[in-house]
UniProtKB/TrEMBL annotation:
The lineage of its organism: Bacteria, Pseudomonadati, Pseudomonadota, Betaproteobacteria, Burkholderiales. Catalyzes the specific phosphorylation of the 3-hydroxyl group of shikimic acid using ATP as a cosubstrate. It catalyses: shikimate + ATP = 3-phosphoshikimate + ADP + H(+). Binds 1 Mg(2+) ion per subunit. Its EC number is 2.7.1.71. PROSITE patterns: HTH_CROC1 (PS50943). Belongs to the shikimate kinase family. Residues 28-82 form the HTH cro/C1-type domain. It is an enzyme of class 2 (transferase). Monomer. SUPFAM superfamilies: lambda repressor-like DNA-binding domains, P-loop containing nucleoside triphosphate hydrolases. It comes from Hydrogenophaga atypica. This is Shikimate kinase. InterPro entries: Cro/C1-type_HTH (IPR001387), Lambda_DNA-bd_dom_sf (IPR010982), P-loop_NTPase (IPR027417), Shikimate/glucono_kinase (IPR031322), Shikimate_kinase/TSH1 (IPR000623).
Amino acid sequence: MSSNILHVSGGAAADQRHPFLVQLGERVRSTRARRGMTRKALALAADVSERHLANLEYGEGNVSILLLMQVASALQASAAELLGDVTTQSSEWLLIRELLTNQDEATLRRARIALAEMLGTASKQRGQSCCVALIGLRGAGKSTLGQMLADDLGYPFVELSREIEKFAGCSVSEIQALYGQNAYRRYERRAVEEAIQIYPEAVLATPGGLVSDAATFNLLLGHCTTVWLQADPEDHMGRVRAQGDLRPMAASAEAMDDLKNILKGRSAFYAKAQYRVNTSEQPLDETFVVLRATVREALGLPV
Ligand SMILES: Nc1ncnc2c1ncn2[C@@H]1O[C@H](COP(=O)(O)OP(=O)(O)OP(=O)(O)O)[C@@H](O)[C@H]1O
Ligand SMILES: O=C(O)C1=C[C@@H](O)[C@@H](O)[C@H](O)C1
Ligand SMILES: [Mg+2]
């Protein structure tokens, strides 16, 4: 349905209103009712005309983002609440959001860990898991150092990308090309679920993009001892290039900028790992010494 036929009112014409705008209007009305505000009072507080507000409430007219922000602010609600974000859809959700709003990162982290334990997405056992997951961007050294670490610990080494390819019966790039990114993420989730179920002790090399799926990453954080293998952008690029593989920066004239942006966008997620080892500070064998000591100490094994 085209969105330029929205200035209609009532009766059969109401059928032409876009369902999203109708629901948006209903949420504005119900939030206003919850706040005990008349339309007139809200219009005044939001500095919009009553006519405009009525259009919004009846889903007639494609409201501008700025006007929506004004209305949300006057209702002391978030724009997400008016837009119908899942985290605003019940009284419990709203109360939980309120509890977490304005908390610092450290408190939010404690809340996430407590929730994961309560909801069963974290391992029941307290302390460090013997399933060690290495995370980081492409070329961080997850496969190379992961195999070395597994050999040293006497644990199986699990390359999650290979597990994904086994489930799918084709390569990672074929999964992405043939079935799309969402299907790939489902395979990735399944590979993590199976690995943590099958192996009480293992070293997992994870795909670099895993952190972009919050549910899969929560699962990993809840069940594994996690290490972020960090590197400078130049090293990520140099190592990936040396392997003759330019994904995910292929076909980009500004490959380095892309890589830096990906790293910047993901760093806050990679940083949720319990430990981090900087692989750019020393050559491979010395990095392994640092990683080995970090993991052995975490697992309570002799260094
Ligand atoms: N200090 C170092 N730490 C880790 N790897 C290093 C270091 N110096 C050089 N390398 C080299 O960098 C490469 C890292 O590639 P590797 O395939 O292990 O990364 P990866 O994180 O598994 O990447 P991908 O996400 O593409 O699977 C290896 O060839 C390794 O020998
Ligand atoms: O860093 C990335 O975005 C990716 C890395 C690969 O391991 C795969 O996860 C996928 O090809 C995407
Ligand atoms: Mg690898």
